[in-house]
Specification:
Elements: H1 2-8, E1 25-28, E2 33-36, E3 42-48, E4 52-59, E5 70-76, H2 83-99, E6 104-113, E7 116-127, E8 130-141, E9 144-153, H3 158-171, E10 173-174, H4 187-192, E11 203-215, E12 220-231, E13 237-243, E14 249-255, E15 258-259, E16 261-265, E17 268-277, E18 282-292, E19 303-305, E20 311-314, E21 337-345, E22 349-352, E23 355-362, E24 365-371, E25 381-385, E26 387-394, E27 397-404, E28 407-408, H5 411-432, E29 439-445, E30 451-452, E31 456-460, E32 471-472, H6 478-485, E33 494-496, H7 501-521, H8 523-538, H9 558-576, H10 578-591, E34 595-597, H11 599-606, H12 608-618
């Protein structure tokens, strides 16, 4: 079948038939596919080949050499279409050859189009000396393949073109596409659910209001999360896809005061709303789920027990949009306010991102409420356990150290930890711009490595002591603390999306650790650390040294991102000059606060000299 795909998926340069169709919509009755034109002054040029039907739409009287046009390609296969290899072969055999040395893959997303599984690719390059971006959707309907190709010449305002192309995408209609109320969850959702991907839909979560109740005797955590939603799509919608970590068990979904009809497959649940919501209309769902309980201990991949009985949870809220695309890169989505109320045993405490709004004890239970502040985290995390809190007031910030009751720690150790966190926070505030946080919570857990979030840092206590001997708190090295504190900026305040996500998420915090040591210990130390990072990169096996722009957000390539990634940033700093580099980082941190940052934003801020130096590392 791939041999046929190569023949039919050649890039369309001209229609096979020169007759034009001046109509609002092109419809192919044989395939049951119709598509509107983006603007009133565009025309269709349909043609039929031996294996495909191809339709080009472009401005009337414009030349195709200007690269301002789109195409619809329809083909039938003898067997059901295996979408991913067809898409990959098209990119490799067609676009790489057509764009040549200018080719760059910007994004690859798994999603649904008109209820059918699809893959969206976004590429850039030049054709006939015209620089452009190409957005392409490959869609599978059983044994039919549908391709929608959209071209954006960079010499024209992208927003105005995109407005018309959105009409094309939103108006694409495919006969036989499953209706939401009757549709099974696409097989794609099950295969990628473990990676945190839910089929892309129109919904955006604007706020979460969660209640987490933990019962120690049953070792069970129950969660009820209200999700405020808005229909951000161009058409009415009456069903919502909700994703939970595979380790969590869904109990029910409620909306408008009643249980909703749901269908589950893998980690994705489709909830049918009482009626269709128009674009920009709002609704709310409450998702009930749990972890642990009788015969089902809390799963290690989500909730990590410590010997003191505490556990931590990360990325635990339900999602209505994917967090990763099919290339493993972070996906841009709406940021949401988060309020979390905890109901735990009286001797326990809970800590999460934001600020503590209330803390009360009643009838043997402790009730705590946390609300996000000026920074809305992109990755939610919390810790529960029999914690005691030691507070330290450092210049410019308060440090709260959360220790399990079994932890043994001296006052000097807490002072050292607080001073190190303050130094890291101070450096990152100067380098990336001050954040509206007055308190940093540092929580001792049995996680293997330190983990940083928005104003929240998990650190490992010293492992290996037999219980009930007290655990001696292990203070992470200053570089590790700096790296994890920097994640309040890279990954929370300003969250990377698209190609190069992993490089921005991992390498900039790692670079912050090197730069902070240089500030405190001198430039000689900085240069030595950079040389060590470069040496570690050169020592990697050849098959591990891949372009940084293609590395996925999986954690498997942390060593590459912390060595080659740091070397790339240092090379950019030298090319841009210290003053421009400092200004660029501050501008990125301030302008993208509580929003998303793309690779192009970084390259534009650093300037053309640094961008030229960075591209060989990235692509």
């Amino acid at each position: 079948m791939l041999g046929i795909a190569l023949a039919l998926l050649a890039v369309v340069q001209a229609p096979q038939d020169t007759a034009t169709l001046d109509a609002p919509v092109y419809a192919d009755e044989a395939y049951g596919v119709s598509v509107p034109r983006p603007f009133d002054d565009w025309v269709f040029e349909p043609g039929v080949g031996p294996q495909t039907t191809t339709v080009i739409f472009h401005p009337r009287a414009a030349s195709l050499r200007d690269q301002l046009w789109g195409a619809l390609i329809l083909a039938a296969f003898p067997a059901p279409v295996d979408l991913r290899p067809v898409t990959e072969r098209r990119v490799a055999a067609t676009w790489r050859q057509l764009l040549g040395r200018t080719y760059a893959m910007l994004a690859a997303d798994s999603l649904t189009v008109d209820g059918l599984p699809a893959i969206r690719t976004l590429m850039s390059g030049a054709i006939n000396h015209v620089a452009l971006d190409v957005e392409e959707y490959t869609i599978a309907r059983d044994s039919d393949l549908i391709i929608l190709q959209l071209r954006y010449p960079r010499g024209l305002p992208r927003d105005s073109i995109a407005a018309g192309y959105r009409r094309v995408i939103g108006g694409l209609r495919i006969r036989g596409a499953p209706l939401p109320e009757a549709a099974p969850v696409p097989a794609l959702a099950e295969s990628v659910a473990a990676a945190g991907i839910v089929p892309r839909g129109p919904w955006e979560a604007t706020a979460y209001d969660a209640l987490v109740r933990y019962d120690a005797p049953a070792a069970r955590a129950d969660m009820a999360v209200r999700v405020d939603l808005v229909n951000g799509g161009p058409t009415p919608a009456d069903s919502v896809a909700v994703w939970l970590w595979p380790a969590l068990a869904l109990d029910s979904v409620r909306g408008a005061g009643a249980n909703l009809v749901v269908r589950a497959r893998g980690s994705v649940t489709w909830a049918r709303l009482p009626g269709a919501l128009q674009p920009q209309e709002t609704t709310a769902l409450t998702v009930y789920y749990h972890a642990g309980g009788a015969g089902a201990p809390l799963p290690a991949q989500l909730l990590e027990f410590t010997r003191s009985g505490a556990f931590v949870a990360t990325d635990w809220l339900p999602k209505v949009q994917p967090s990763l695309d099919s290339a493993g890169q972070a996906v841009q989505g709406a940021r949401a306010r988060i309020t979390v109320r905890f109901d735990v045993p009286e001797r326990w405490r809970a800590v999460t991102q934001g600020h503590l709004a209330s803390d009360a004890v009643s009838q043997g239970r402790r009730l705590m409420t946390w609300r996000t502040g000026d920074v809305w985290p992109s990755v939610p995390a919390f810790a529960l356990g029999p914690y005691r809190v030691l507070a330290r007031q450092e210049p410019g910030v308060s440090i709260a150290v959360w220790l399990a009751r079994a932890d043994s720690v001296s006052s000097e150790t807490v002072d050292t930890l607080a001073a190190s966190v303050q130094a890291a926070w101070s450096f990152c505030s100067r380098a990336f711009g001050a954040l509206g946080m007055g308190e940093i919570n540092v929580v001792a857990t049995d996680v293997a490595d330190a983990r940083g979030f928005s104003g929240l840092v998990f650190i490992p206590r010293r492992a290996g002591r037999p219980s009930p001997a007290p655990e001696m708190l292990r203070v992470p090295d200053f570089p590790v603390l700096t790296r994890e504190v920097a994640r309040a900026w890279w990954g929370n305040s300003a969250t990377p999306a698209g190609a190069g996500s992993a490089w921005m998420l991992e390498s900039f915090p790692a670079w912050a650790a090197v730069a902070a040591q240089g500030v405190l210990q001198g430039d000689t130390v900085r240069q030595r650390l950079v040389r060590e990072a470069e040496a570690a990169w050169r020592a990697l096996p050849p098959n591990r040294d891949v372009p940084l722009g293609r590395v996925g957000v999986s954690g498997a390539d942390a060593e590459l991102l912390r060595s080659k990634g740091v070397a790339a940033i240092e090379a950019a700093r030298r090319a841009a000059g210290e003053a421009q580099f400092r200004e660029a980082l501050l501008r990125l941190g301030v302008e993208h606060r509580n929003t998303w940052i793309a690779l192009d934003d970084v390259l534009a801020a650093l300037g053309p000299d640094a961008a030229t130096v960075l591209r060989p590392y990235l692509f």
